[in-house]
Amino acid sequence: MSSGIPGAPVGGLALPAGFENLAEHGVLLDVVTTALERVEHELSEAVTNTDQLADHTSRHLLEAGGKRIRPLLTILSSLLGEPGVGTGQVGEVAAEVRSAAVVMELTHLATLYHDDVMDEAPVRRGAPAAHQVWGNSVAILAGDLIFARASLLMATLGPEAVAIQARTFERLVMGQLWETVGPEEQDDHLEHYLRVIGGKTGSLIASAGRLGAHFGGCDETTVRILDDYGEKVGMAFQLADDVIDLTSTSHASGKTPGTDLKERVPTLPVLLLRQAAPADATAAAVLELVDGPLDTDEQLAAAVAAVSAHPVIEQAWDITRGWAADAVEALAPLPASPVKSALVAFADYVVDRDN
């Protein structure tokens, strides 16, 4: 089964555009794609259950696809510890690295089940959300079951890995809590939102970088660099999602454009509109549509078109690209290598994709 990572197909998978540096080093490219294929198989094994309902619900989102950016980052980060990384001559990705990659994706999948219940999202990855098929209670339990499987696998990697997962899950929950209760009266709404996505998205992608580097045998400095890089890439990834939700087609993204608007989720473009509205009559007019009824397809389409046409979209892209640039800057202390170039391309990809 394909990993679902967008880009040109390579070895049965598809890597993000911009990974030409890997193509120049055939062995390195083979190592990455082979590891991703094994991770995909191990993901399927990890959610297998003899109980039919548990098996079907656990596989629901896994088999719907996904970008698999967390496993990819885990694998790439691990390769920085390879002696032959400068020439692209590297060995097979270690089993511990693959296990960490599986845990990162399983943890992400578990949160999606819970998020979709809380957000009442109808669709995920082009398929009906789990709660639409089995109801809220079963969907929540399926997420819990997947996280349990992730925890069991992480326990095989030692106490430090378990501690990293626990701290990551704490940040994930806190991010969701902050989003649920919203900012307090004295809070800056944009700063609050950045804190939310740092918890909900940045934390797990940071851990993917950290665990990959750790189990790849990197020194502690490199491990910290990959943690910092992953956090900033995660911020850029989620902020890009905010904009893509308003600018992509349903075919490209797998969900209806404006889903965040319809669900009244405060995202970067709308927060920027609210900042601009007191001095910008156009922004205020757009907000009237955003804050008005969005019950029909026509109402939602009008709001999406109005936000998409406003200059806040380009402002949102500028902020997003800034996070990606900061991620690339975090890599500066690392020596030049094909893997470092791939990590730079990875940061570019998260803001240049169309879904």
Keywords for this structure?
355 residues; 4 strands; mainly alpha; two-stranded antiparallel ribbon; globular; 70% helix; Polyprenyl_synt_CS; Farnesyl Diphosphate Synthase
Name the CATH architecture. Orthogonal Bundle
CATH third-level topology: Farnesyl Diphosphate Synthase
Biggest sheet, open or closed, and with what strands and sense?
Answer: 2 strands, antiparallel
Number of strands: 4
Strand order of the largest sheet: 1-2
How much strand?
under 5%
Domains counted in the coordinates: how many?
A: 1
Element order, helices and strands? EEHHHHHEEHHHHHHHHHHHH
What is shown here, in short?
The chain has 355 residues and is mainly alpha-helical. Helix content is 70%, strand content 3%.
Please characterize this protein's 3D structure.
The protein has helices spanning 20-23, 26-47, 52-62, 69-78, 95-119, 130-134, 136-155, 159-181, 189-215, 220-247, 250-253, 259-262, 268-276, 281-291, 297-309, 312-330, 338-352; strands spanning 8-10, 13-15, 123-124, 127-128. Strands 1-2 form a two-stranded antiparallel ribbon. The two termini are 20 Å apart. Strand 1 (8-10) and strand 2 (13-15) form a beta hairpin. The protein has a single domain, classed as Farnesyl Diphosphate Synthase, CATH 1.10.600. The protein has 355 residues and is mainly alpha-helical. It is globular. It is an enzyme of class 2 (transferase). This is Polyprenyl synthetase family protein. Belongs to the FPP/GGPP synthase family. Pfam families: polyprenyl_synt. GO terms for molecular function: transferase activity.
